[in-house]
Structures are given as C-alpha cells and as structure tokens.
C-alpha cells in the first residue's frame, strides 16, 4: 500500500450541494440567466441531471427568472450605455435569453426614450469634437450610434438635428 492509498481523501463531494453553492454564489449581487448559470455549472463539472434539477427548482422558487433578468438587463444597459433595441437583442441572445422572452421585453422599450438616449450620446460625444471638421464629426457620430445598435435612418436624422442645434451645418444624407 502506498502513501497515497493510506491518505484519507475524505468523502467525495456531493454534486448537489456543490451546485447549490455555485448557484447561490452566482446569484449574489446580480441576476443571471438560466443559460449563464448552466454554463457555470458545466465548467465546474456538475452533472447535467443535477444541474437541470437544481435550475428547475431555482426557477420554481423565483431565484432564476429569465424574463425578470432580461427586463433588468435592458433597463440597465439602455440607461447606462444608451443601447438601442437591436444591440440589446444581441446581448440578450448572448446571455442565453430565448427569442420570445427577448421580443416581449424589448417591445416594452419606449421609442421616445430610445430616441432621447441617442440624442444624449450625440451631445456628449459632440462636445469632444469641437475642433473636428463637421463632415468628419457627422461620420463619427453616425458610426457611434450604429455601434450602439441604432438604425442608419434614425442615426442620420438625430446627428443632423443635433449638429444643427449646435450651429454646425452639415449634410449627412
């Protein structure tokens, strides 16, 4: 018998209690989608049947709720980053929120608040573009809005309005 055989390694860890601890740790501080939690459990080698059973139980008691997660995510990302619905839809997809839930949540986004967020982004960026040619400034602003998920038509219209408001005339058509 070798030294390794004599060493007491203790009982094998209980997969369910390990998984429960992982889930509770992950849900402390911020909500997560079921998909994100399932990925975390898989990375920690929790068997699929145990993970599925625990995730179902956490959903039953309301600790895992993809719809509430999506609402919170959309509200936060639109408020802090000024993202448009298209960009938010991509982020929700990456987070594993199903398309139907994402559509429902994104339908609640007020077009006026989306427009206002785009205008605030343009105004903020425009302050840093004072010494830049108007055409170049317009191109940069439209590009910024496009990266945030705004449609080309809306981006052009908002940039044109905000440039005019700032006394900078340029054709962005």
TrEMBL record:
Residues 19-57 form the RecX first three-helical domain. GO terms for cellular component: cytoplasm. Signal peptide: none annotated. Keywords: Cytoplasm. Residues 65-106 form the RecX second three-helical domain. One of its GO terms (biological process) is regulation of DNA repair. Pfam families: RecX_HTH1 (PF21982), RecX_HTH2 (PF02631), RecX_HTH3 (PF21981). InterPro entries: RecX_HTH_1st, RecX_HTH_2nd, RecX_HTH_3rd, Regulatory_RecX, WH-like_DNA-bd_sf. It comes from the Bacteria. It is found in: Cytoplasm. Its main location: cytoplasm. Residues 114-158 form the RecX third three-helical domain. Belongs to the RecX family. Modulates RecA activity. This is Regulatory protein RecX. It comes from Nocardioides antri.
